[in-house]
Amino acid sequence: MNKYVKQIKEGIVDQNPTLVQFLGMCPTLATTTSVSNAVGMGLAATAVLICSNVFISLLRKFIPKEIRIASYIVIISGFVTAVELLMKAFLTPLYDALGLYIPLIVVNCIILARAEAFASKNPVLPSAVDGLSMGLGFTVALVLIASVREILGAGTWLGLRVTPSFYEPALIFILPAGAFLTLGMIVAAVNKGKSFAAAYAEAHPKPEGVEVLPDEIVTDAPAAEETPAADEPASEEPKEEPKTEESEVSANGSAD
Amino acid sequence: MTDKEKDTAAAAAPASDAAPAAEPAAKEKKAIDPHAMLTVSTSPHIKSPDTTRSIMIDVLIALLPSCIWGVYAFGPRSVSLLLIAVICAVGFEALYQFIMKKRITVTDCSAAVTGLLVGMNLPSTAPLWIPIIGAFFAIVVVKQLYGGIGKNFMNPALAARAFLMLAWPNAMTASPQPFTTSSMFSVSVDSADIVASATPMQLLKTGTIPDNGIFNMLLGAKAGTIGEVSTLLLIAGGIYLLVRRVITWHIPVSYLATVALISYLFPQNAAERLEFVACEIICGGLMLGAVFMATDYATTPITANGRLLFGVGCGLITMFIRYFGGYNEGVTFAILIMNTLVWYIDNLTKPKRFGGVPNNGK
Fold first, then answer.
1. Residue of B127, B141, B167 with shortest CB distance to A170
2. pTM (2 decimals)?
Protein backbone atom coordinates (compact mmCIF):
# COMPACT_ATOMS: atom_id res chain seq x y z
CA MET A 1 0.00 0.00 0.00
CA ASN A 2 2.86 2.29 0.92
CA LYS A 3 4.15 1.95 -2.62
CA TYR A 4 0.96 3.44 -4.02
CA VAL A 5 1.00 6.36 -1.61
CA LYS A 6 4.52 7.09 -2.76
CA GLN A 7 3.38 6.81 -6.39
CA ILE A 8 0.59 9.32 -5.82
CA LYS A 9 3.00 11.72 -4.13
CA GLU A 10 5.36 11.34 -7.10
CA GLY A 11 2.60 12.28 -9.54
CA ILE A 12 1.39 15.31 -7.62
CA VAL A 13 4.70 16.73 -6.40
CA ASP A 14 8.00 15.25 -7.56
CA GLN A 15 7.00 14.32 -11.09
CA ASN A 16 4.10 16.71 -11.55
CA PRO A 17 3.25 16.34 -15.25
CA THR A 18 2.66 20.05 -15.78
CA LEU A 19 4.93 21.92 -13.42
CA VAL A 20 7.90 19.53 -13.52
CA GLN A 21 7.66 17.54 -16.73
CA PHE A 22 6.06 20.34 -18.80
CA LEU A 23 3.72 17.96 -20.56
CA GLY A 24 0.33 18.97 -21.90
CA MET A 25 1.13 22.66 -22.14
CA CYS A 26 -1.62 23.35 -24.67
CA PRO A 27 -4.61 22.56 -22.41
CA THR A 28 -2.70 23.99 -19.45
CA LEU A 29 -2.40 27.41 -21.05
CA ALA A 30 -5.73 27.41 -22.83
CA THR A 31 -8.24 26.06 -20.31
CA THR A 32 -7.06 27.75 -17.13
CA THR A 33 -9.03 30.95 -17.64
CA SER A 34 -11.34 29.93 -14.78
CA VAL A 35 -11.16 27.45 -11.92
CA SER A 36 -14.27 25.58 -13.01
CA ASN A 37 -12.80 25.03 -16.48
CA ALA A 38 -9.56 23.82 -14.92
CA VAL A 39 -11.31 21.34 -12.63
CA GLY A 40 -13.40 20.03 -15.52
CA MET A 41 -10.42 19.67 -17.81
CA GLY A 42 -8.30 18.06 -15.10
CA LEU A 43 -10.90 15.51 -14.08
CA ALA A 44 -11.78 14.65 -17.69
CA ALA A 45 -8.10 14.03 -18.42
CA THR A 46 -7.75 12.02 -15.19
CA ALA A 47 -10.66 9.77 -16.11
CA VAL A 48 -9.23 9.13 -19.56
CA LEU A 49 -5.76 8.60 -18.10
CA ILE A 50 -6.88 5.95 -15.59
CA CYS A 51 -8.98 4.04 -18.13
CA SER A 52 -6.37 4.15 -20.88
CA ASN A 53 -3.59 3.15 -18.49
CA VAL A 54 -5.62 0.14 -17.28
CA PHE A 55 -6.45 -1.04 -20.77
CA ILE A 56 -3.00 -0.48 -22.20
CA SER A 57 -1.55 -2.34 -19.24
CA LEU A 58 -3.98 -5.23 -19.84
CA LEU A 59 -3.06 -5.35 -23.52
CA ARG A 60 0.65 -4.70 -23.08
CA LYS A 61 1.72 -8.20 -24.06
CA PHE A 62 -0.73 -8.39 -26.92
CA ILE A 63 0.09 -5.11 -28.72
CA PRO A 64 2.99 -5.53 -31.20
CA LYS A 65 5.84 -3.16 -30.48
CA GLU A 66 5.92 -1.74 -34.01
CA ILE A 67 2.40 -0.29 -33.94
CA ARG A 68 2.08 0.43 -30.26
CA ILE A 69 1.66 4.21 -30.57
CA ALA A 70 -1.20 3.83 -33.04
CA SER A 71 -2.81 1.23 -30.78
CA TYR A 72 -2.51 3.54 -27.77
CA ILE A 73 -4.13 6.36 -29.70
CA VAL A 74 -7.04 4.12 -30.67
CA ILE A 75 -7.59 3.09 -27.05
CA ILE A 76 -7.24 6.66 -25.77
CA SER A 77 -9.57 8.12 -28.38
CA GLY A 78 -12.20 5.57 -27.46
CA PHE A 79 -12.22 6.76 -23.88
CA VAL A 80 -12.06 10.41 -24.90
CA THR A 81 -15.14 9.94 -27.06
CA ALA A 82 -16.94 8.35 -24.11
CA VAL A 83 -15.95 11.21 -21.79
CA GLU A 84 -16.92 13.76 -24.43
CA LEU A 85 -20.38 12.26 -24.89
CA LEU A 86 -20.92 12.00 -21.13
CA MET A 87 -19.91 15.62 -20.59
CA LYS A 88 -22.12 16.74 -23.44
CA ALA A 89 -25.06 14.92 -21.84
CA PHE A 90 -24.58 15.81 -18.19
CA LEU A 91 -22.26 18.84 -18.01
CA THR A 92 -23.31 20.86 -21.03
CA PRO A 93 -22.10 24.31 -19.82
CA LEU A 94 -18.66 22.92 -19.01
CA TYR A 95 -18.61 21.09 -22.34
CA ASP A 96 -19.41 24.34 -24.13
CA ALA A 97 -16.73 26.22 -22.21
CA LEU A 98 -13.98 23.69 -22.90
CA GLY A 99 -15.04 23.17 -26.50
CA LEU A 100 -12.26 21.84 -28.68
CA TYR A 101 -10.02 20.91 -25.78
CA ILE A 102 -12.06 17.85 -24.83
CA PRO A 103 -11.43 16.01 -28.12
CA LEU A 104 -7.85 17.23 -27.98
CA ILE A 105 -7.27 15.09 -24.87
CA VAL A 106 -6.61 12.32 -27.42
CA VAL A 107 -3.26 13.84 -28.25
CA ASN A 108 -2.50 15.08 -24.74
CA CYS A 109 1.17 14.34 -24.13
CA ILE A 110 0.62 13.28 -20.53
CA ILE A 111 -1.68 10.41 -21.49
CA LEU A 112 0.55 9.17 -24.30
CA ALA A 113 3.65 9.59 -22.14
CA ARG A 114 2.22 7.54 -19.27
CA ALA A 115 1.02 4.86 -21.70
CA GLU A 116 4.46 4.59 -23.26
CA ALA A 117 6.57 5.09 -20.13
CA PHE A 118 4.53 3.29 -17.51
CA ALA A 119 1.41 1.36 -18.50
CA SER A 120 3.11 -0.60 -21.26
CA LYS A 121 5.66 -1.98 -18.78
CA ASN A 122 3.70 -2.46 -15.57
CA PRO A 123 0.80 -4.57 -14.29
CA VAL A 124 -2.75 -3.29 -14.08
CA LEU A 125 -3.02 -2.00 -10.51
CA PRO A 126 0.17 0.14 -10.50
CA SER A 127 -0.86 1.49 -13.89
CA ALA A 128 -4.25 2.53 -12.57
CA VAL A 129 -2.62 4.23 -9.58
CA ASP A 130 -0.15 5.89 -11.91
CA GLY A 131 -3.01 7.22 -14.03
CA LEU A 132 -4.73 8.53 -10.92
CA SER A 133 -1.60 10.18 -9.55
CA MET A 134 -0.62 11.83 -12.83
CA GLY A 135 -4.20 12.93 -13.42
CA LEU A 136 -4.39 14.43 -9.94
CA GLY A 137 -1.06 16.16 -10.48
CA PHE A 138 -2.38 17.64 -13.72
CA THR A 139 -5.61 18.73 -12.02
CA VAL A 140 -3.79 20.30 -9.06
CA ALA A 141 -1.48 22.22 -11.38
CA LEU A 142 -4.38 23.43 -13.53
CA VAL A 143 -6.37 24.56 -10.50
CA LEU A 144 -3.32 26.37 -9.12
CA ILE A 145 -2.75 28.26 -12.38
CA ALA A 146 -6.45 28.92 -12.88
CA SER A 147 -6.83 30.25 -9.32
CA VAL A 148 -4.14 32.85 -9.86
CA ARG A 149 -5.50 33.79 -13.26
CA GLU A 150 -9.14 33.98 -12.20
CA ILE A 151 -8.47 35.92 -8.99
CA LEU A 152 -6.15 38.44 -10.64
CA GLY A 153 -7.90 38.58 -13.98
CA ALA A 154 -11.56 38.53 -12.98
CA GLY A 155 -11.52 39.08 -9.21
CA THR A 156 -13.44 35.85 -8.64
CA TRP A 157 -12.75 32.28 -7.57
CA LEU A 158 -15.09 29.60 -8.88
CA GLY A 159 -17.35 32.46 -9.92
CA LEU A 160 -17.52 34.02 -6.43
CA ARG A 161 -16.16 37.52 -5.89
CA VAL A 162 -13.14 37.26 -3.58
CA THR A 163 -11.30 40.53 -4.11
CA PRO A 164 -12.19 43.79 -2.37
CA SER A 165 -14.38 46.16 -4.33
CA PHE A 166 -11.60 48.66 -5.09
CA TYR A 167 -9.60 46.01 -6.94
CA GLU A 168 -9.86 46.45 -10.68
CA PRO A 169 -9.28 43.07 -12.36
CA ALA A 170 -6.25 42.97 -14.62
CA LEU A 171 -7.66 41.56 -17.84
CA ILE A 172 -4.26 40.39 -19.04
CA PHE A 173 -4.37 37.37 -16.73
CA ILE A 174 -7.41 36.04 -18.57
CA LEU A 175 -5.68 36.60 -21.92
CA PRO A 176 -3.06 34.17 -23.33
CA ALA A 177 -0.18 36.43 -22.27
CA GLY A 178 -1.33 36.08 -18.67
CA ALA A 179 -1.29 32.29 -19.00
CA PHE A 180 2.40 32.32 -19.87
CA LEU A 181 3.22 34.85 -17.15
CA THR A 182 1.35 32.86 -14.51
CA LEU A 183 2.80 29.53 -15.57
CA GLY A 184 6.33 30.96 -15.53
CA MET A 185 5.90 32.49 -12.09
CA ILE A 186 4.36 29.34 -10.60
CA VAL A 187 7.06 27.10 -12.06
CA ALA A 188 9.70 29.47 -10.69
CA ALA A 189 8.07 29.38 -7.26
CA VAL A 190 7.79 25.59 -7.34
CA ASN A 191 11.45 25.21 -8.35
CA LYS A 192 12.51 27.64 -5.65
CA GLY A 193 10.47 25.76 -3.09
CA LYS A 194 11.92 22.43 -4.18
CA SER A 195 15.51 23.64 -4.09
CA PHE A 196 14.85 25.27 -0.73
CA ALA A 197 13.36 22.03 0.59
CA ALA A 198 16.27 20.02 -0.79
CA ALA A 199 18.79 22.40 0.75
CA TYR A 200 16.92 22.28 4.03
CA ALA A 201 16.79 18.49 4.01
CA GLU A 202 20.49 18.37 3.20
CA ALA A 203 21.40 20.85 5.91
CA HIS A 204 19.38 19.20 8.65
CA PRO A 205 19.16 15.49 7.94
CA LYS A 206 19.91 14.10 11.39
CA PRO A 207 18.96 16.85 13.83
CA GLU A 208 15.36 16.54 12.70
CA GLY A 209 15.37 12.84 13.40
CA VAL A 210 16.79 13.60 16.81
CA GLU A 211 14.23 16.28 17.43
CA VAL A 212 11.46 13.78 16.94
CA LEU A 213 13.08 11.22 19.18
CA PRO A 214 12.89 13.06 22.53
CA ASP A 215 9.12 12.65 22.61
CA GLU A 216 9.53 8.91 22.79
CA ILE A 217 12.86 8.30 24.43
CA VAL A 218 14.12 11.36 26.18
CA THR A 219 17.36 9.86 27.47
CA ASP A 220 18.58 8.90 24.01
CA ALA A 221 18.80 12.43 22.73
CA PRO A 222 22.25 13.37 24.09
CA ALA A 223 23.66 10.00 23.04
CA ALA A 224 22.56 10.52 19.46
CA GLU A 225 24.15 13.95 19.33
CA GLU A 226 27.43 12.65 20.71
CA THR A 227 28.09 9.86 18.28
CA PRO A 228 27.74 10.42 14.59
CA ALA A 229 29.31 7.01 13.99
CA ALA A 230 26.64 5.34 16.08
CA ASP A 231 24.02 6.36 13.52
CA GLU A 232 24.49 3.29 11.43
CA PRO A 233 23.57 0.70 14.04
CA ALA A 234 20.81 2.94 15.29
CA SER A 235 19.50 3.59 11.82
CA GLU A 236 16.47 1.35 12.28
CA GLU A 237 14.77 3.91 14.42
CA PRO A 238 15.51 7.12 12.51
CA LYS A 239 14.91 5.44 9.17
CA GLU A 240 11.22 5.54 9.77
CA GLU A 241 11.39 9.22 10.54
CA PRO A 242 12.94 10.44 7.28
CA LYS A 243 9.88 9.25 5.39
CA THR A 244 7.52 11.45 7.34
CA GLU A 245 10.07 14.17 7.12
CA GLU A 246 10.24 13.82 3.35
CA SER A 247 6.52 14.07 3.02
CA GLU A 248 6.51 17.16 5.21
CA VAL A 249 9.19 18.69 3.06
CA SER A 250 7.41 17.86 -0.13
CA ALA A 251 4.21 19.29 1.30
CA ASN A 252 6.13 22.49 1.81
CA GLY A 253 7.33 22.32 -1.75
CA SER A 254 3.87 21.88 -3.15
CA ALA A 255 2.44 24.61 -1.01
CA ASP A 256 4.74 27.04 -2.75
CA MET B 1 38.98 52.43 -35.86
CA THR B 2 40.11 55.98 -36.38
CA ASP B 3 40.63 56.43 -32.66
CA LYS B 4 42.70 53.33 -32.58
CA GLU B 5 44.82 54.52 -35.48
CA LYS B 6 45.38 57.82 -33.73
CA ASP B 7 46.45 55.96 -30.61
CA THR B 8 48.94 53.85 -32.48
CA ALA B 9 50.21 56.91 -34.38
CA ALA B 10 50.69 58.77 -31.13
CA ALA B 11 52.47 55.82 -29.65
CA ALA B 12 54.71 55.51 -32.70
CA ALA B 13 55.65 59.21 -32.81
CA PRO B 14 57.97 59.33 -29.81
CA ALA B 15 59.67 56.17 -30.96
CA SER B 16 61.19 57.98 -33.95
CA ASP B 17 63.54 60.08 -31.88
CA ALA B 18 65.87 60.99 -34.71
CA ALA B 19 63.16 62.73 -36.71
CA PRO B 20 63.18 66.52 -36.24
CA ALA B 21 59.92 67.06 -34.41
CA ALA B 22 57.77 70.13 -34.64
CA GLU B 23 56.94 71.92 -31.42
CA PRO B 24 53.47 70.50 -30.77
CA ALA B 25 54.81 67.02 -31.39
CA ALA B 26 57.56 67.68 -28.90
CA LYS B 27 54.99 68.65 -26.30
CA GLU B 28 53.18 65.38 -26.88
CA LYS B 29 56.44 63.55 -26.54
CA LYS B 30 56.98 64.96 -23.09
CA ALA B 31 53.49 64.08 -22.01
CA ILE B 32 53.86 60.38 -22.79
CA ASP B 33 55.38 58.29 -20.08
CA PRO B 34 57.88 55.87 -21.69
CA HIS B 35 56.97 53.17 -19.23
CA ALA B 36 53.35 53.30 -20.25
CA MET B 37 54.38 52.50 -23.84
CA LEU B 38 56.06 49.33 -22.75
CA THR B 39 53.16 48.15 -20.65
CA VAL B 40 51.09 45.58 -22.53
CA SER B 41 47.56 45.19 -21.35
CA THR B 42 44.58 43.23 -22.57
CA SER B 43 41.81 44.86 -24.57
CA PRO B 44 39.86 47.16 -24.59
CA HIS B 45 42.45 49.72 -25.62
CA ILE B 46 40.02 52.39 -26.72
CA LYS B 47 38.60 54.19 -23.75
CA SER B 48 35.67 56.52 -23.64
CA PRO B 49 34.61 58.80 -20.82
CA ASP B 50 31.00 57.56 -21.21
CA THR B 51 29.52 55.60 -18.38
CA THR B 52 26.06 54.13 -18.01
CA ARG B 53 25.31 57.02 -15.71
CA SER B 54 26.40 59.73 -18.15
CA ILE B 55 24.44 58.12 -21.00
CA MET B 56 21.32 57.76 -18.89
CA ILE B 57 21.57 61.36 -17.70
CA ASP B 58 21.80 62.41 -21.36
CA VAL B 59 18.61 60.46 -22.07
CA LEU B 60 16.90 62.10 -19.10
CA ILE B 61 17.95 65.53 -20.38
CA ALA B 62 16.62 64.67 -23.83
CA LEU B 63 13.29 63.50 -22.38
CA LEU B 64 12.85 66.50 -20.13
CA PRO B 65 11.48 69.07 -22.66
CA SER B 66 8.76 66.70 -23.75
CA CYS B 67 7.89 65.97 -20.10
CA ILE B 68 7.65 69.66 -19.35
CA TRP B 69 5.34 70.11 -22.31
CA GLY B 70 3.23 67.17 -21.06
CA VAL B 71 2.93 68.81 -17.65
CA TYR B 72 2.07 72.14 -19.27
CA ALA B 73 -0.56 70.56 -21.50
CA PHE B 74 -2.14 68.07 -19.11
CA GLY B 75 -1.79 69.82 -15.80
CA PRO B 76 -0.29 68.96 -12.42
CA ARG B 77 -1.76 65.47 -12.35
CA SER B 78 0.87 64.38 -14.88
CA VAL B 79 3.55 65.51 -12.42
CA SER B 80 2.29 63.08 -9.82
CA LEU B 81 2.07 60.27 -12.40
CA LEU B 82 5.62 60.89 -13.62
CA LEU B 83 7.02 61.22 -10.11
CA ILE B 84 5.32 58.06 -8.88
CA ALA B 85 6.63 56.14 -11.89
CA VAL B 86 10.23 57.33 -11.44
CA ILE B 87 10.31 56.88 -7.65
CA CYS B 88 8.73 53.43 -7.85
CA ALA B 89 11.09 52.29 -10.62
CA VAL B 90 14.16 53.37 -8.65
CA GLY B 91 12.68 51.99 -5.43
CA PHE B 92 11.79 48.60 -6.91
CA GLU B 93 15.26 48.26 -8.43
CA ALA B 94 16.95 49.06 -5.12
CA LEU B 95 14.56 46.79 -3.22
CA TYR B 96 15.02 43.86 -5.59
CA GLN B 97 18.80 44.18 -5.56
CA PHE B 98 18.76 44.49 -1.77
CA ILE B 99 16.57 41.42 -1.32
CA MET B 100 18.59 39.37 -3.81
CA LYS B 101 21.84 40.56 -2.18
CA LYS B 102 23.11 42.09 -5.42
CA ARG B 103 25.11 45.27 -5.80
CA ILE B 104 22.64 48.14 -5.74
CA THR B 105 23.03 50.02 -9.02
CA VAL B 106 20.26 52.61 -8.90
CA THR B 107 22.81 55.42 -9.13
CA ASP B 108 23.39 54.57 -12.79
CA CYS B 109 20.00 56.23 -13.45
CA SER B 110 18.82 53.51 -15.84
CA ALA B 111 15.87 52.73 -13.57
CA ALA B 112 14.98 56.41 -13.50
CA VAL B 113 14.92 56.48 -17.32
CA THR B 114 12.71 53.39 -17.40
CA GLY B 115 10.41 54.89 -14.79
CA LEU B 116 10.17 58.19 -16.65
CA LEU B 117 9.35 56.39 -19.91
CA VAL B 118 6.65 54.36 -18.13
CA GLY B 119 5.18 57.58 -16.81
CA MET B 120 5.35 59.30 -20.18
CA ASN B 121 3.40 56.45 -21.73
CA LEU B 122 0.42 57.00 -19.44
CA PRO B 123 -2.56 59.21 -20.21
CA SER B 124 -2.90 61.94 -17.63
CA THR B 125 -6.24 60.47 -16.50
CA ALA B 126 -4.71 57.13 -15.46
CA PRO B 127 -5.33 56.08 -11.83
CA LEU B 128 -2.38 56.77 -9.58
CA TRP B 129 -1.76 53.06 -8.85
CA ILE B 130 -1.15 52.35 -12.53
CA PRO B 131 2.44 53.74 -12.60
CA ILE B 132 3.28 51.66 -9.50
CA ILE B 133 2.30 48.43 -11.21
CA GLY B 134 3.90 49.56 -14.46
CA ALA B 135 7.19 50.31 -12.71
CA PHE B 136 7.07 46.97 -10.91
CA PHE B 137 6.49 45.05 -14.14
CA ALA B 138 9.17 46.97 -16.02
CA ILE B 139 11.87 46.79 -13.37
CA VAL B 140 11.28 43.51 -11.57
CA VAL B 141 9.67 41.24 -14.14
CA VAL B 142 11.21 42.44 -17.42
CA LYS B 143 14.56 43.82 -16.29
CA GLN B 144 15.75 42.22 -13.06
CA LEU B 145 14.34 38.70 -13.45
CA TYR B 146 16.30 38.41 -16.70
CA GLY B 147 19.54 39.53 -15.03
CA GLY B 148 19.37 43.30 -14.73
CA ILE B 149 20.68 46.08 -16.93
CA GLY B 150 21.85 44.98 -20.37
CA LYS B 151 20.33 41.51 -20.11
CA ASN B 152 16.65 42.23 -20.67
CA PHE B 153 15.40 41.00 -24.05
CA MET B 154 12.62 43.55 -24.25
CA ASN B 155 12.46 47.25 -23.59
CA PRO B 156 11.20 47.32 -19.97
CA ALA B 157 9.15 50.50 -20.29
CA LEU B 158 7.43 49.29 -23.46
CA ALA B 159 6.75 45.86 -21.99
CA ALA B 160 5.17 47.59 -19.00
CA ARG B 161 3.05 49.70 -21.35
CA ALA B 162 1.91 46.57 -23.19
CA PHE B 163 1.12 44.86 -19.88
CA LEU B 164 -0.90 47.83 -18.64
CA MET B 165 -2.70 48.17 -21.98
CA LEU B 166 -3.75 44.53 -21.91
CA ALA B 167 -4.61 44.59 -18.22
CA TRP B 168 -6.59 47.83 -17.96
CA PRO B 169 -7.45 48.82 -21.53
CA ASN B 170 -10.02 51.42 -20.49
CA ALA B 171 -7.66 53.35 -18.25
CA MET B 172 -4.74 53.09 -20.65
CA THR B 173 -6.36 53.94 -23.97
CA ALA B 174 -8.21 57.01 -22.70
CA SER B 175 -6.56 59.97 -24.31
CA PRO B 176 -7.34 63.24 -22.59
CA GLN B 177 -7.57 66.53 -24.44
CA PRO B 178 -4.73 68.94 -23.83
CA PHE B 179 -5.26 71.99 -21.62
CA THR B 180 -7.88 70.32 -19.45
CA THR B 181 -6.62 70.01 -15.91
CA SER B 182 -7.61 67.54 -13.26
CA SER B 183 -6.75 67.30 -9.58
CA MET B 184 -3.20 66.36 -8.76
CA PHE B 185 -3.89 63.85 -6.01
CA SER B 186 -7.22 62.21 -6.86
CA VAL B 187 -6.59 58.48 -7.22
CA SER B 188 -8.85 58.11 -10.22
CA VAL B 189 -10.47 60.64 -12.47
CA ASP B 190 -14.00 60.80 -13.75
CA SER B 191 -12.80 61.40 -17.24
CA ALA B 192 -16.02 61.88 -19.19
CA ASP B 193 -15.47 65.54 -19.97
CA ILE B 194 -11.69 65.34 -20.33
CA VAL B 195 -11.28 62.45 -22.72
CA ALA B 196 -11.36 63.26 -26.40
CA SER B 197 -14.33 61.91 -28.30
CA ALA B 198 -12.05 60.63 -31.03
CA THR B 199 -8.27 60.52 -30.73
CA PRO B 200 -6.05 61.42 -33.68
CA MET B 201 -5.17 57.76 -34.13
CA GLN B 202 -8.82 56.73 -34.27
CA LEU B 203 -9.50 59.38 -36.89
CA LEU B 204 -6.46 58.30 -38.94
CA LYS B 205 -7.61 54.70 -38.89
CA THR B 206 -10.73 55.74 -40.75
CA GLY B 207 -8.76 58.00 -43.07
CA THR B 208 -9.88 61.29 -41.55
CA ILE B 209 -7.27 64.00 -41.03
CA PRO B 210 -7.59 65.45 -37.51
CA ASP B 211 -8.69 69.08 -37.70
CA ASN B 212 -6.24 70.40 -35.08
CA GLY B 213 -3.92 71.66 -37.80
CA ILE B 214 -0.63 69.97 -38.53
CA PHE B 215 1.52 72.71 -37.02
CA ASN B 216 -0.42 72.62 -33.75
CA MET B 217 -0.09 68.87 -33.58
CA LEU B 218 3.62 69.13 -34.27
CA LEU B 219 3.90 71.46 -31.28
CA GLY B 220 1.88 69.12 -29.11
CA ALA B 221 -1.69 70.40 -29.01
CA LYS B 222 -3.37 67.05 -29.44
CA ALA B 223 -4.87 64.26 -27.39
CA GLY B 224 -2.52 61.51 -26.23
CA THR B 225 -0.33 60.28 -23.42
CA ILE B 226 1.79 62.63 -21.30
CA GLY B 227 5.06 62.17 -23.14
CA GLU B 228 4.09 61.46 -26.72
CA VAL B 229 2.21 64.58 -27.76
CA SER B 230 4.99 67.08 -28.37
CA THR B 231 6.56 65.76 -31.54
CA LEU B 232 8.80 68.79 -31.98
CA LEU B 233 10.37 68.52 -28.52
CA LEU B 234 10.85 64.77 -28.98
CA ILE B 235 12.72 65.46 -32.22
CA ALA B 236 14.82 68.04 -30.38
CA GLY B 237 15.63 65.42 -27.74
CA GLY B 238 16.55 62.97 -30.46
CA ILE B 239 18.91 65.48 -32.09
CA TYR B 240 20.54 66.09 -28.70
CA LEU B 241 21.10 62.34 -28.30
CA LEU B 242 22.52 62.14 -31.84
CA VAL B 243 24.90 65.02 -31.18
CA ARG B 244 25.99 63.45 -27.91
CA ARG B 245 26.41 60.14 -29.79
CA VAL B 246 24.16 58.33 -27.36
CA ILE B 247 22.13 56.92 -30.26
CA THR B 248 22.85 56.43 -33.94
CA TRP B 249 20.61 57.68 -36.72
CA HIS B 250 19.89 54.25 -38.21
CA ILE B 251 16.86 53.09 -36.27
CA PRO B 252 14.88 56.35 -36.01
CA VAL B 253 15.49 57.24 -39.67
CA SER B 254 14.70 53.82 -41.11
CA TYR B 255 11.67 53.50 -38.82
CA LEU B 256 10.21 56.88 -39.74
CA ALA B 257 11.08 56.45 -43.41
CA THR B 258 9.30 53.10 -43.56
CA VAL B 259 6.18 54.56 -41.95
CA ALA B 260 6.28 57.54 -44.31
CA LEU B 261 6.81 55.38 -47.38
CA ILE B 262 3.96 52.99 -46.59
CA SER B 263 1.53 55.74 -45.68
CA TYR B 264 2.49 57.55 -48.89
CA LEU B 265 2.13 54.49 -51.11
CA PHE B 266 -1.02 53.13 -49.46
CA PRO B 267 -2.81 56.07 -47.87
CA GLN B 268 -6.13 55.57 -46.10
CA ASN B 269 -7.06 58.96 -47.52
CA ALA B 270 -5.78 59.35 -51.07
CA ALA B 271 -7.20 62.85 -51.51
CA GLU B 272 -4.92 64.42 -48.88
CA ARG B 273 -1.98 62.14 -49.30
CA LEU B 274 0.77 64.36 -47.92
CA GLU B 275 -1.27 65.49 -44.91
CA PHE B 276 -2.01 61.88 -44.20
CA VAL B 277 1.68 60.98 -44.28
CA ALA B 278 2.49 63.89 -41.95
CA CYS B 279 -0.24 62.88 -39.52
CA GLU B 280 0.85 59.26 -39.47
CA ILE B 281 4.30 60.42 -38.38
CA ILE B 282 3.25 63.15 -35.98
CA CYS B 283 0.32 61.48 -34.25
CA GLY B 284 0.47 58.67 -31.76
CA GLY B 285 3.53 57.35 -30.03
CA LEU B 286 5.69 56.97 -33.13
CA MET B 287 8.23 59.70 -32.39
CA LEU B 288 8.64 58.71 -28.73
CA GLY B 289 8.98 55.08 -29.79
CA ALA B 290 11.35 55.65 -32.70
CA VAL B 291 13.72 57.99 -30.86
CA PHE B 292 13.70 56.74 -27.28
CA MET B 293 12.26 53.22 -27.19
CA ALA B 294 13.58 51.57 -30.34
CA THR B 295 17.13 52.78 -29.65
CA ASP B 296 17.57 51.06 -26.28
CA TYR B 297 21.03 49.44 -26.31
CA ALA B 298 20.24 46.05 -24.84
CA THR B 299 17.29 45.33 -27.10
CA THR B 300 18.50 46.48 -30.52
CA PRO B 301 20.98 45.01 -33.03
CA ILE B 302 24.67 45.87 -32.82
CA THR B 303 25.55 46.41 -36.48
CA ALA B 304 24.48 49.36 -38.62
CA ASN B 305 22.80 47.10 -41.18
CA GLY B 306 21.03 45.26 -38.41
CA ARG B 307 19.74 48.53 -37.02
CA LEU B 308 18.42 49.60 -40.43
CA LEU B 309 16.67 46.24 -40.73
CA PHE B 310 15.30 46.62 -37.20
CA GLY B 311 13.86 50.05 -38.03
CA VAL B 312 12.27 48.83 -41.25
CA GLY B 313 10.71 45.90 -39.39
CA CYS B 314 9.33 48.20 -36.71
CA GLY B 315 7.86 50.47 -39.39
CA LEU B 316 6.23 47.59 -41.26
CA ILE B 317 4.63 46.09 -38.16
CA THR B 318 3.51 49.50 -36.91
CA MET B 319 1.74 50.27 -40.17
CA PHE B 320 0.31 46.76 -40.34
CA ILE B 321 -1.27 47.18 -36.89
CA ARG B 322 -2.44 50.73 -37.68
CA TYR B 323 -4.13 49.61 -40.89
CA PHE B 324 -5.42 46.15 -40.06
CA GLY B 325 -5.00 45.56 -36.33
CA GLY B 326 -7.48 45.77 -33.50
CA TYR B 327 -5.55 48.62 -31.89
CA ASN B 328 -5.34 52.16 -33.24
CA GLU B 329 -1.65 52.43 -32.44
CA GLY B 330 0.95 49.77 -33.17
CA VAL B 331 4.26 51.25 -32.03
CA THR B 332 4.38 49.36 -28.72
CA PHE B 333 3.82 45.92 -30.16
CA ALA B 334 5.95 46.61 -33.24
CA ILE B 335 9.03 47.44 -31.17
CA LEU B 336 8.41 44.57 -28.75
CA ILE B 337 8.08 42.08 -31.60
CA MET B 338 11.27 43.37 -33.22
CA ASN B 339 13.03 43.21 -29.82
CA THR B 340 12.44 39.48 -29.76
CA LEU B 341 14.01 39.19 -33.25
CA VAL B 342 17.22 41.02 -32.37
CA TRP B 343 19.19 37.84 -31.81
CA TYR B 344 18.26 36.68 -35.29
CA ILE B 345 19.03 40.03 -36.91
CA ASP B 346 22.43 40.14 -35.19
CA ASN B 347 23.25 36.70 -36.57
CA LEU B 348 22.03 37.67 -40.02
CA THR B 349 24.09 40.84 -40.23
CA LYS B 350 27.27 39.53 -38.64
CA PRO B 351 30.10 41.42 -40.39
CA LYS B 352 32.66 39.44 -42.34
CA ARG B 353 35.89 38.97 -40.44
CA PHE B 354 38.66 41.17 -41.87
CA GLY B 355 40.61 39.05 -44.36
CA GLY B 356 38.21 36.19 -43.89
CA VAL B 357 37.09 34.01 -46.75
CA PRO B 358 33.47 34.67 -47.74
CA ASN B 359 31.07 31.86 -46.87
CA ASN B 360 33.81 29.83 -45.22
CA GLY B 361 35.28 29.02 -48.64
CA LYS B 362 32.21 27.20 -49.88
1. B167
2. 0.79
